[in-house]
Amino acid sequence: MEAPSLIEEIRFGYGPRMGSPPSPGGLEPERLLAQLTAADPTAAAWNRPSMADRLTLLVQVRQDKMAGIDVSPKSNQSVAMDDLKRIEQDDAPTFFARPAVASLGFVERLVNLWANRITVSNVSQGVGHHIQTFRDEAIRLNIAGRYADMIKATLWHPAMQIYLTQTESVGPNSPVGKRKGRGLNENLAREFLELHSMGKGYTQTDVTELAKLLAGMVTDETGPHVAKARAEPGRKHILGVTYGEGKDQIDKLVEDVAHRPETAQAVAFFLARHFIADVPPPDLVQALTATYLAQDTQLVPLYRTLLQHPAAADPNRQKVRTPQEFAVASLRLTGLTGMEKGMLGFNKKSMMVPTYLTNMGQQPLKPLRPDGWPEVAAGWMTPPMMASRIDWATDLARATGDRADPVALVDFALGDMATPLLRRAVAGAEQRWEGLAVLIASPDFSRR
Fold first, then answer.
1. Is 241 exposed, middle or buried (0-12, 13-18, 19+ CB in 10 A)?
2. Distance CA 244, CA 79 (A)
3. How far is Cα 120 from Cα 143, in angstroms, rounded to an integer?
4. Which of 236, 240, 339, 418 has the fewest C-beta atoms lying within 10 Å of its C-beta?
C-alpha cells in the first residue's frame, strides 16, 4: 500500500499519535480550521487553577507576610505559598504532555506559536505563578478571535506586567512619582511595539509616551485597572494620535496599533515563517498582510489564507522542529505522554522530559529573551543540541522499541515523505529499538 501524505499532521500539528485513528492524508484547510471550534476531548484533564484563583492566593500570601509569617517558597510556613508552589510545579508538564495526547494538534501548535511571539518567561520572580493562565486565558482563548484582542489580553495579564517590570513603572508626575521620586519603566512599552505588534515605524518618543500611558496599569484581584496614584496625568502623543488617561485609553491604543499596516506585516511574516520556511514566500506574506487588514485583525481568515497557499501543501519540508515539537512528536509516535514513571532508561520517578528539553536548548517555559525561542533552524542546530536529540532518541527507543515494528513506524510517522535512505537505515538495524532510534534521530523526523 502506498504511504499517505502526512503533511497536515506534520507541518500543522505534532505528528500522528500511536493508537489514534489513521490520518486521512493530504492537506484539507477546512478540516484543520474545524479544530478551532471542535470540542477538545482531553480539555478537562488539563484544567488548571484560574488567574483569579491564583490572585486570591497571592492576596493571602501578602496577608501572611504582614502577619510576620515567612512566605519564602522553601519555608513551608505559608499555606497559600505552598499551594502556589504546588500549582506551579503541576503546571509544567502541560508544556509537553498536553500536545502529546492532543487530538486537536493544530490548536496546540497555535497556542504555542502565539505564546512564543508574545512571550513571558519564568526567569523573573513571580512570573511562574501566572504563566499557565497566560497561555490558557490570554492566548488559548484568543487563537480563533482577533489579534487585537489577543494582544490586549496579554498586555493586561499579570505575567506580562511582572515579566517586563511594568509593575515598577510610575508616572513621574503622579502622586507616587512626586512623593518618592520614581519614574517610568519602558520595557513593556518598547516590547509591545517592537515584538508584539509593529516591529518598525515608531520612534523612541513613541516608546516614552506609551510608557506614560501604561504607567499605573495593574491587574489584581479586583481586575484590570489603572492605579491613579501611579498614573501619569495629561495627554500622550503616540504614533500621531493623542490619548488621555485610564484603561479605556490604553485599550484604544492597542486597537489602533493592532490595525496598523506595520503590525499586519509583522504578524503575517511571523505566521508564514513559523509554518512554511525560515525565509517565507513573499507572495504569501503579502496575501496574509492583506487578509489581516481586510478582516479586522481576525485570525481565522489569516489561517485560511495560509492553508490555501500552495506552499502549505508543498512536501518539501523546510522547517526544523523545535525541541518541544521534536520531543512531543516522538512521544506521540510511541504512544506516551512524557509523564510515565519507571520506564527502562529513564529516572524511576519520571521520564525527566524537561531535562531533555533543556539539554536540547528549550527549557520549558523559560525562553531567555523577550522575543521568545528561535523560529529559525540556526537556533536549534548547534552540535550539543543535536547530540542531545540523539540522546533523547536513544533513551526513548530503548524504553519503547519492542512495542512496534520500526519499519512500519516509518510509514506511520512520515508517510510518503520518508526518504529511501531512511527506510534502508531503519530496515538494516539489528534490533527493533535501534531502528526506532534511527527513525527518531533522523533529519527526516526533525523536519516539518
1. exposed
2. 42
3. 17
4. 240
DSSP secondary structure letter of residue 237: E
Between helices 261-275 and 282-294, what is the axis angle to 10°?
130
Beta-carbon contacts of residue 28 (< 8 Å; ≥ 6 apart): 8
Who contacts 396 (Cβ-Cβ below 8 Å, separation ≥6)? 330, 331, 334, 345, 436, 437, 440
| Integer Cα distance of 8 and 397 in angstroms | 25
CB-based contact 231:215 (threshold 8 Å): yes
Cα distance between residue 325 and residue 364, in whole Å: 12
Amino acid at 350: S
Across 2-41, b (16+ Cβ under 10 Å) vs e yields eebbbbbbbbbbbbbbbeeeebebebebeebbebbeeeee
In the 3-class helix/strand/coil scheme, how is 253-315 assigned residue by residue? HHHHHHCCHHHHHHHHHHHHHHHCCCCCCHHHHHHHHHHHHHCCCEHHHHHHHHHHCHHHHCC
The DSSP secondary structure of 391-425, one letter per residue, reads: HHHHHHHHHHTTSS-HHHHHHHHHBTTS-HHHHHH
Q: Show the cell assigned to 290.
A: 492583506
pLDDT in tens, 283-316: 999 999 999 999 999 999 999 999 999 999 999 9
∠ CA(43), CA(14), CA(4), 5° rounding? 120
Output phi, psi for 48, to 5 deg: -115, 155
pTM of the model: 0.96
φ/ψ bin of 20: left (φ > 0), alpha (ψ from -120 to 50), beta (otherwise): beta
Query: Tens digit of pLDDT for each residue in 193-243?
Result: 999 999 999 999 999 999 999 999 999 999 999 999 999 999 999 999 999
Judged by DSSP in three states, 118 sits in: coil
- Taken as a whole, the chain contains a residue count of 448
Q: Report in angstroms the alpha-carbon separations of 358 from 91, 323, 385.
A: 17, 9, 9
The half-sphere exposure of 110 on its side-chain side, counting CA atoms within 13 A, is 23
Q: Is 337 exposed, middle or buried (0-12, 13-18, 19+ CB in 10 A)?
A: middle
